[in-house]
Amino acid sequence: MSTTVAFILAAAALAGLAVAPLFLNAYGIGLLVGMTGYVVLASAWAMFSGPTRYVSLATVAFFGIGAYTVAVLSETLPYPLVLLCACAIGLTVALIVGLSTLRLAGIYFVIFTFGLAELIRQLVTWYEVNVTGTLGRYIFLPFEGIHIYWQLLALAAVTLLLSWWISRSRLGLALRAVGDDEVVAAHAGINVSRAKLMLFALSATIITLVGAIQAPRWVYVEPAIVFNPTISFLTLIMALLGGATRLWGPALGAVPLFLLFEWLSANFPNYFSIILGIFFICIVFFLPQGVLAKIEGLRRPAGKVPPEDKERSGAA
Amino acid sequence: MLIDTLITGLVAGGTYALVAMGLTIQFGISRIMNLAHGDTIIAACFASFILFSVFGLSPILALMIVVPAGYVLSDAIYRLIMRPLVARAPNAGALEVDSILVTFGLLFVIQGVLLVAFGGNYTGYTFLNTPVDLFGTIVAANRLLALFLALVFGITLIFVLSRTRWGMTLRAVSIAPENAPLVGIDINRAARTAFALGGALAATAGVVVSMYQTFTATIGVIFTMKALIVVILGGKGSLTGALIGGLLLGLVETFVAAYIDPGLTLAATYTIFLLLLILRPTGFFGQAG
Amino acid sequence: MSQTVLRRAFLRSVSAFGAAALFLSAMSEGATAQDDRTSVRIGYAVSLSGANAGGAGITTIPNYRLWVEDVNAAGGLLLPDGSRLPIEVIEYDDRSSSEEAVRAVERLATQDEVDFILPPWGTGFNLAIAPLMARAGYPQIAVTAVTDRAPEFVERWPSSFWLLGGGADYSTALAAVMAEARDAGAINNQVAMISVADGFGIDLVNAARPALAEAGFELVYDEVFPVGTSDFSTILNEARATTADSFVAFSYPPHTFALMQQSQVVDYSPPLFYLGVGAGFPVFQNMNAENVEGVMSLGGIDPNNPQNAAYRERHQEVIGAPADYWASVITYSSLQMLQQAIERVGLDREAVTQELATGTFETAAGTITLENNQLRDLWWVGQWQGGTFVGVAPTDREGASAPQLPKPGWN
């Protein structure tokens, strides 16, 4: 019954957010678009990286694939089909990458995912230059900020629902076991590889969709624009700030950080990099497990540490 | 043609080796994956540019100022930022991931300071841009200097690390950090020294690179990527690996440009990099595990 | 899952979005219009940090600041009624990201309600903000956007202006200059050509291939290199090994600098030596001193135009660095056009747009009249002559210098 109540409340909040842009100006809607985009990115990132503790920097690789798919297909296919194609491409790449990196752990996985984004960018560039003979594509879809926002909001709802469902399912259990100790998990009869692969693919597909949905806002797309590695890092730090192992953690990290960045770039345009860097360092220092864990840690009597907070990145 | 490509590749590789050596020491011994490595290099570029254009100091002499400064500053950064992370990390894996995140923040701080101080413009000067005939192939003296310095520093350090007591200490920390204290080694000090040494090497690379490459405050990440590839190629913590890996990278890029397609040089680099990560993550010269 | 956990989870979601809602509610009100205004609010979002900071830092930012300084030093913008209003600047950093650029413009238009918005740096970013600018009724005087599709964009966004031509303009003009030089016997009919694998380079090279072929040239070397390339030894050695008298590189600034340095080392000094973006930057001349003589590139100036000389002097004085020889003076002139349009018709954006499209303006780059919202009177090819980068094509344009070929060898 309590679950029902929670769902009703969540649905009400969703409805509220859905009508919100009707009362806002274009900038307000722009903020909602950016914010919701990062809420989805951070939540999707945490879906895989939270329980397994595999830190992925491939976010922008999939984000860029989504954006590029829309740029390539938007004039030949109806929009829903374009999104489906983006999903299919993102999923395929994720499965290939997932299968080939199953043996990598710890820092090697981090570095691999970082390099992956660059490789995909180089290949897209080479293909465009040598095969299609253009670089830079135009997207003329009749979407305004509000349409993009509604799509992102729907995706956010689906992502959070999936995360919630996974955390209760056998799959979620299996992944948490991987995060705690991969060897023990394997011995306990959990198909570690399959669990990791499934979640990586799901998370990557959602990230691909974010890129696909946001791309029409930029009108013009080229590799340097859509494969910007900062996106991977911002997603990561947002999820960490909120807490990557909690359902609402990434969203709670994304919203305040996004607003802070917006405030900084408006009020200190010349010092943005310095302040951002100091902030980044502070988060790693003072909130390594995220805000939620910090708050709960303050409430809980000293000495009792929930198992998921013991260490963030066990695999080495 | 073949000799030409070989020599051009080796000279280009000298720069990569020089750029990567600092990172491999920091990563291998201090367990810090320093994403701000490239920005340290750029900071050194600006330092030698100022020394050259304002004080008229030759970049060779600038090395005497910038390299010790790189050591001292890196030492301070280690004490201030890295040490607390090392102290709280439950294991090497957690430290490596924490260090990636914290040095990413550091990257923005350095970049921001450079932007405020110098703006976003392209900066550069010319020094030793004179031809040198090397077995019939013409190469630039300043690029040859990079290769020369990479070899000198690399071989000296390899020798020092393998033959002196001080070097043995550092290597012991790199190979078996958990056992080092048992034989009376101060791990914290060794890690700090290695981190500072890496900073000094980054400063060296910066001074040398500034002689032939124009730079902006925001291109540090390009050097970090190159260094990262070389480090993975050579194996973490291995100076021999960084030296050979760097030269190899130069050769690969030059051969791909000469015999396949200049458009594929970087794609080829990343393909080798990713394949190697999958097949042999410890690199060609890294110790297992 | 217990009830408390659920409640806590819900409260979290509410508090997260609640904070956002609070922030957003401030957005819906916006600034109220002032009747007795004390300033003209002008906003812009450019790349102060990130990958584009290098380009924006040389062409866009210094000229925006110089113009504001110049106008305010004179007492402000002159209005039709003879009064003057100072400029109030609102500056944002787009962090070299399209999404940030779009949102910054939304903010300028609907939150800050500025009177005019100056464009960002780069083709991609100008296109990203174009629909917003058009919808909100702001004239967009895009300078650092080189595109062959400008006529189509003008149709799509009638309040947009495109001031730096398209890739084909530059390539076709170069082919014409080369054909003339060949017919005069200064160069042979073979060309070694390289291009960067990025938007602008590809635009130029795609237009150059047919233009050169039509002019009767033979491409003996034609390669594309990735943006990240820093070592050009192989490319230069292969180009030198050909019998071509012309070397053409459609490059970006880092490549332009490296190509110039390395060709001196390998002593590759073909009779016609053309480099891409960056050859008109002050740092290019500083680094290469008298060796720049004879090098060709995009842009240029009329060395005998006194307004341009005065502008360059002022740029040096206020910014502390010389202006570049391609887009800088056009950027400053675009602002002078805005200034003069305001002087004639006031602050009404529709009227200003109309005036920009039809009026004639006296600027640092000479007298400017737009054709179909585009500036067509530009220097497509320039050449370093006697320490100044002068415009050589179109050859029939007033103030054009004669191309001097073959280029002298390196010192």
TrEMBL record, chain A:
GO-annotated cellular components: plasma membrane
Superkingdom of the source species: Bacteria
MF GO annotations: branched-chain amino acid transmembrane transporter activity
Keywords tagged on the record: Cell membrane, Membrane, Transmembrane, Transmembrane helix
Transmembrane residue ranges: 28-48, 55-73, 79-99, 106-127, 147-166, 197-214, 220-240, 247-265, 271-292
Coiled-coil regions listed: none
Topological type in the membrane: Multi-pass membrane protein
Database matches in Pfam families: BPD_transp_2
InterPro entries named among the record's database cross-references: ABC_transp_permease (IPR001851), LivM-like (IPR043428)
Compartments, as annotated in UniProt: Cell membrane
PANTHER family noted in UniProt: HIGH-AFFINITY BRANCHED-CHAIN AMINO ACID TRANSPORT SYSTEM PERMEASE, HIGH-AFFINITY BRANCHED-CHAIN AMINO ACID TRANSPORT SYSTEM PERMEASE PROTEIN LIVM
Protein name stated in the entry: Branched-chain amino acid ABC transporter permease
Lineage of the species this protein comes from: Bacteria, Pseudomonadati, Pseudomonadota, Alphaproteobacteria, Rhodobacterales
UniProtKB/TrEMBL annotation, chain B:
Keyword Protein transport appears in the UniProt entry: no
InterPro entries reported for this sequence: ABC_transp_permease, BCAA_transport_permease
Taxonomy, superkingdom: Bacteria
GO BP: amino acid transport
Record-annotated membrane-spanning stretches: 6-25, 32-54, 99-120, 140-161, 194-212, 266-286
UniProt topology in membrane: Multi-pass membrane protein
Record-level Gene Ontology MF annotations: transmembrane transporter activity
Protein name: Branched-chain amino acid ABC transporter permease
Pfam families: BPD_transp_2 (PF02653)
Organism this protein belongs to: Rhodophyticola porphyridii
Cell compartment(s), UniProt: Cell membrane
Automatic annotation (TrEMBL), chain C:
Keywords, ordered alphabetically: Amino-acid transport, Signal, Transport
Record-given protein name: Twin-arginine translocation pathway signal protein
Organism for this UniProt entry: Rhodophyticola porphyridii
Signal listed as a keyword: yes
Top-level lineage group: Bacteria
Gene Ontology biological process terms from the UniProt entry: amino acid transport
Residue ranges of every copy of the Leucine-binding protein domain listed in the record: 39-387
PROSITE patterns reported in the protein's UniProt record: TAT
Family note: Belongs to the leucine-binding protein family.
Signal peptide annotation: 1-33
Protein's UniProt keywords contain rRNA processing: no
Biological classification of the source: Bacteria, Pseudomonadati, Pseudomonadota, Alphaproteobacteria, Rhodobacterales
InterPro entries listed in its UniProt record: BCAA_transport, Leu-bd, Peripla_BP_I, TAT_signal
